[in-house]
Amino acid sequence: MGDISHAEAVAEELRTAAGRVVRRLRRESGMPVQHATALGRLERGGPMTASGLAAAEQITPQSMAATLNALYDRGLVDRAADPGDRRQILWSVTSGGSAVIAEDRARRARWLVTAIDELTDEEAERLRDAARLLNMIMDRSEAGGA
Length: 146
What we know:
By secondary structure, the protein is mainly alpha-helical. About 70% of the residues lie in helices and about 10% in strands. The chain has a two-stranded antiparallel ribbon with strand order 1-2. Strand 1 and strand 2 (about 85-95) form a beta hairpin.
């Protein structure tokens, strides 16, 4: 088997590290991943149908319906008839849901800040540079690049 390229080695290390960070941040969350992602998408994108949310999250409509019903039972989302098509139901985040999202984000941020505080100033700056590069990669990717 031949040697892997430098880019392949960096990609593998990045994939592994990013996965570990994402898993750790999810553990800091006070709710199941499906609930957090549905709430976050509704908060960012505004009211949506269950099928629209399911498609956006790439899960089955049945799974999304279960998630939305659980969130509804907790008072974190509300549902209303779509004014443009009364046969459709639009789901939206309640003020209680927004408060839960804010606390969840703050909890995860506190963990990350604590971890970064353990770095030297130079290491923290290198991490900031890495974050900028990751954002640059994503901006190019989303613009149709690599």
